[in-house]
Specification:
The chain is α+β, with helices and mostly antiparallel strands. The protein is built from 4 helices and 7 strands; from the N terminus they run E-H-H-E-E-E-H-E-H-E-E.
Length: 158
């Protein structure tokens, strides 16, 4: 376990168009039902918060965050299989949460597969709580898989 997330090597930066092929490749290697290259392109064009974590000039992971009306939604958070269990997912999530706070967001939402214990552990560590259950939300080889809907409320500082 990484003790100090700030000391994880790499740089978090905004995603750019030339990252899309690499991001799409990581997505395809990570999920049975991946987002398409076009979905990532559309997120960039829509002005969503799209970030990558780059290490040694390689994209090691990425995150997509939608912000509107005082709320944010983590749409995608993924780390390249070759870079997992090194703290990169936590670092990307921390950056998305910091950007949400900066945008004066009151609450952050996300959906996650209940079978994704690694992600659930990270979200719980960051203070997310399950607020709902969406039946048959995700596509799966056996039909559909449910989603846990999680929320993190930011405390007001003023």
């Amino acid at each position: 376990m990484i003790a100090n997330i700030e000391h994880i090597p790499g740089e978090v930066r905004s995603m750019i168009h030339s990252d899309l092929s690499t991001v799409s490749d990581i997505e395809r290697r990570s999920y049975q039902f991946p987002w398409s290259h076009g979905v990532f392109r559309d997120c960039l064009l829509a002005g969503y918060t799209c970030i990558v974590l780059e290490r040694d000039h390689l994209v090691a992971g990425y995150g997509i965050l939608s912000v509107a009306a005082g709320e944010a939604h983590v749409l995608n958070l993924c780390v390249d299989p070759d870079f997992r269990n090194l703290g990169y997912g936590e670092r990307l999530l921390d950056e998305m949460l910091a950007r949400a706070r900066y945008a004066d967001v009151r609450e952050v939402f996300l959906e996650v597969r209940p079978s994704n214990q690694s992600a659930l552990g990270l979200y719980e560590k960051k203070g997310f709580c399950q607020i709902a259950h969406r039946p048959a939300y995700y596509q799966s080889h056996d039909g559909r898989e449910d989603a846990a809907v999680l929320s993190l409320r930011f405390k007001r500082t003023s």
